[in-house]
Amino acid sequence: MSHRRAGFKVGPDNLPDGFRPRIVANRFTVQAIKRKLIERSKIKRQFFKSQANAEPQPPTIPSYSPEPSPGSGHEIDPAPLHPDRQRLLDGSSGPSQRAKEPNSVAEPPAMSRKDREQEKQKKLQDRARHQKAMLKARGGIHSVDRRQKKLGKEAPLLLEKARRLMNSG
Question: Mean pLDDT of all residues in the chain?
Answer without folding.
Answer: 76
